[in-house]
Amino acid sequence: ETKRRRKDEKRLRKEEKRQRREERHRRKLERRESKQKAKPVDTVTPPSDLDEDQDAAHELSDARETESEQKKLEFELRARALESLRAKKATNR
Prior knowledge:
mainly alpha; about 90 residues; Ser/Arg_repetitive_matrix; RNA binding
């Protein structure tokens, strides 16, 4: 009875290990595919100068937006950290 139970437990551990391995593999593939989609394809015809100027303007405005968003997030994070620190000091008193 105990021998059979140990055997079943071993089989279950192996199955769980296999499932975790497959899950890691699947996530890795998804990450790789998303990175491939993000990269520009070399087979596309090069854009004209006008398109390049428009793209550069778009990228500049996008960079400004992400920069302001980043600053906003950093400010929010600092505020939360200060609030947390104050709460911690209040509980220690």
